[in-house]
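Good morning C.,

I know you're traveling, so I'll keep this short. The sequence:
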Amino acid sequence: MRLFLVAIILVPLLPWRALLAQDAAVARRYPDKMNLLILRDEAGREQPITTAGQWRTRRAHILANMQQVMGPLPGPERRVALEPALSEPRRFDKYQQHRISFATEPGDRVTGYLLVPHGADRRPAVLCLHQTTKAGSASPAGLADRYTLHYAKELAERGYVTLSVDYPNFGEYQFDPYKGGYQSATMKGIWNHMCAIDLLQSLPEVDGKRIGVVGHSLGGHNSLFVAAFDERITCVVSSCGFCRFARYYGGDLTGWSHKGYMPRIAEIYHKDPEQMPFDFTEVVAAIAPRAFLAVAPQRDANFDVGGVRECISAARPVFKLLGAADRLAALYPDAEHDFPDAERQRAYEWFDRWLGAPPVQASP
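The tokens, ready to paste straight into the viewer:
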């Protein structure tokens, strides 16, 4: 482990990838967000999408429309050296736990927990995003809240390197996105989470081509958001994280419009699903052809299960077009707003399938 600590402290800033130079696109309105295989030109004329290249253009429109609500994705001007700082490790049977912080932009450091399995060598890694909880990243790391939300801990026991990070103003992380020049806390979260992928790719223990993301509730939609923008993420699991806006509390988007999320939903789009430039049907489809699993309990009071089914149904033709029909799946347990045992195990098997199951080594 000593070699690991030296490596992470000395790791240089990775070159900023072309992934941030997203396909150039202006926001283009699509009234029908269920029929996704449609491409609109500047005059509003529509044509069917029949090729991957055409879908790529539609996907760029989706990302542009998301930024109409969230504010623009930052560019290289915010890039700084990660400069990770780690606590002394706390040793468990199958992994070591570190408190970690790292820089994401000038004057800002994100906090979280890094769990590294014993004997780790070029393993897959999973970014683990927390629900709405004062404990922040301590929850998925297994240090707070109910055990059904300890997915970073359970994945580390399964052999994955896991990184849990605090969303703005949760856990020990305090940051005002609006004073920082952001239009939403959501976009600040996306930026931080992309920097977390940078960090994971910098670790010698991690195979940088095998990175996933998982989250519950707040973390469930943040997993979707970061995966839509960051194509280095190859496998996604969202628990209780989304539904069509029209199905969210009967179409009342108040819960999405406060400063912890996207205030423009109220300020510009009047909390009206019909006025929203994007919907979750499109966000799910934007992940294709990468692997996506939704866990949507039938009695979730936050996210209507019918609205989740509609998202999966709308996205399915896109996955099929891209030859990835088997990479889209959903589970609908008879449960409330939770991440039940059976579905968590299915989620871990989903990561095993698409990232490659890592070896598990107990403490010597």
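Safe travels,
E.
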